[in-house]
Amino acid sequence: MSDAIHIQFTRFSAFYSPLIATMAGGFLEQEGLKPRHSVSPPGKSAIAGLLDGSVDVAQSAPSQGFASLEQGKQPPALHFAQINEKDGFFLVGRQPEPQFNWQRLAGRKVLVDHGAQPMAMFRYACFKRGLEFKSVQAVDAGSTEKMIEAFCRGAGDYIHLQGPAPQQLEHDGAGHIVATLGDAIGPCAFSSLAATREWLAGDMAKRFMCAYRKARAWLIATPAAEVARAEASFFPGIDREVLAATIGSYQKLGNWSPHVEITRPAWEATVDIFLHAGLITKRHRYEDVIAPPPSD
């Protein structure tokens, strides 16, 4: 008899393959857990699902804790393991640019994802590459789908997207990846697994963590095409080649490091990024947001 575990994603894409692999590779079943997954509906965060008891584990980001901390409150959930230790967005242009330099964005129209964390990261990538963000015409074209539609209609010189959208544009001949934000920024606490303090203290958390460690190790060691085969049913609308290219890109970038812990240096890097963007007013403590992974 398996215990049901409900996993909720804030966004669902191949970028979150370490979590998807726990289901696609059968690792949760090996621990006696029957997974059910969903994507949080518009206007409701996955954290809300944790709090009302409908969700056990949420795909989130450590920066989610900043809102509570800025109000002097304790965050309602803790982030106990990393999914990605690097930004997973790509910069796509209209032509191949093997010698791309970030200074080329000065004066250009860039369709930038205006979500709080993606935008903070984009601004920091510009800073790290010596580019004045104000020199970029950062266009808000709306949702990811609307951004892609606008770019394909001819709007903008570049577009800022998370995989697999950039790989799909390349596959369709509609764009060319010219840079990765992960390379520009370096390691940081980007995306994570979150849960309530109560759930983290229970037996299911230990079993989940055992499955997650195995899934992550498998994902790092397995050829991208094989991972794409295992995950294909989770991405019915995505070409298998595109899925494999996306997974391969993240493996090469080092988004999925062997350790599962959200490290203190990665947290401090994210604090730097959000301070630079003006989204927080002070340095917040690692211990107020991050918990160690559950273990026996």
Tell me what you see in this structure.
The protein is 39% helix and 17% strand. It is α/β, with parallel strands linked by helices and 296 residues long. The protein has two domains: 3-86 and 188-288, D-Maltodextrin-Binding Protein, domain 2 (3-Layer(aba) Sandwich), CATH 3.40.190; 89-185, D-Maltodextrin-Binding Protein, domain 2 (3-Layer(aba) Sandwich). The strands form two sheets. It has a five-stranded mixed β-sheet with strand order 2-1-3-10-4, with helices on both faces. Strands 7-6-8-5-9 form a five-stranded mixed β-sheet. Helix 1 (17-24) packs across helix 10, helix 7 (165-171) crosses helix 12 (240-253) and helix 11 crosses helix 12 (240-253). The longest helix is centred in the last third of the chain and has 19 residues, at 203-221.
Using the alpha-carbon principal axes, give the shape. Answer: globular
Helix/strand/pairing category? alpha/beta
CA radius of gyration is 19 Å
Distance between the termini: 22 Å
CATH level 1 name of the largest domain: Alpha Beta
Tell me what portion of residues adopts beta-strand conformation: 15-25%
Number of helices: 13
- What is the name of the CATH architecture of the largest domain? 3-Layer(aba) Sandwich
Q: How many domains comprise the coordinates?
A: 2
**What summary fits the major beta sheet?**
5 strands, mixed
Q: Would you list the SSEs in sequence order as H and E?
A: EHHEHEHEEEHEHEHEHEHHHHH
Task: Reconstruct the topology from this structure.
Elements: E1 3-9, H1 17-24, H2 27-30, E2 33-39, H3 46-52, E3 57-60, H4 66-70, E4 78-84, E5 89-93, E6 109-111, H5 116-128, E7 137-139, H6 144-152, E8 158-162, H7 165-171, E9 176-180, H8 181-185, E10 191-195, H9 197-200, H10 203-221, H11 224-231, H12 240-253, H13 264-276
Helix pairs in contact: 1-10, 7-12, 11-12
